[in-house]
Structures are given as C-alpha cells and as structure tokens.
Amino acid sequence: MFRPSKEKITLKKFVLIALGSISLGLGILGLFVPVLPTTPFLLLTAWLYSKSSPTLYYWLLNNKYFGKYIKRYREGLGIPLKTKIIGVGSLWITILSSIIFFINILVVKILLLCIATAVTYHILSRPTYKDT
What we know:
This protein is mostly helical. The protein has helices at about 10-30, 40-50, 55-60, 65-75, 80-100, 105-125, and strands at about 80, 130.
C-alpha cells in the first residue's frame, strides 16, 4: 500500500509543485476550452510532480479521470479514437466560430488556423489507442 511520506519542502520543490499545479489547472481548463491543449499540460504536470513530490506524482498517475491517459501517452500507446474525434472536432468548431464571428484581424485569423492545424496534426499523428 502506498503511504505518502513526509516530504521536506525546499524552495525548488515548492516552485516545481506550484508550476505543476498551475499546469494541472490549465490542463483541466483545456478539457472545456478547445484552444488549450490538455495533454501537454498534463504531461508537464507529471514531469514537474515527478521532480518535486512523489506523493503528487503518484496521485496524478492514479487519478481516475486522467491518470490512465497520461500513462498511455507516456508509454507510447496513443490516444483513444473517441478522444481524438472529440478533441479535433471541438477544436475546429471553436476556431472556425471565432474566426467567422469574433475575429476581424486577418493576421489573427491566419494564426488561429495555423495553431488549429498544428494541434490537429499533433493529435492525429499520435497512435490510436485500442482497448484490448
């Protein structure tokens, strides 16, 4: 059974934990805001927690909502097809509606299209995880 240890918090650990927690918050926010990429923030959180707090790292990797996604991604097993479809679909709906209804500056429209294309490429270039 895992027991959290009484970890000595140094300034470096405190900063890494704080950055990891901010990254986690941005990752969670990315679940609801398609322009924010969830997976990179969660992977950054895992790395920051692994360098600063075994307790938080263990908690993150065993979290029932996103622990399995982090483990699969880090092991190179890929992203589930449903997650790819929802992610890419919501990304493009948000980007296109922003470009059509809210953004008037051509350069910003082009930048948003480039970002959406890059994120789409990244998601689709990852292996598709298949439950076996």
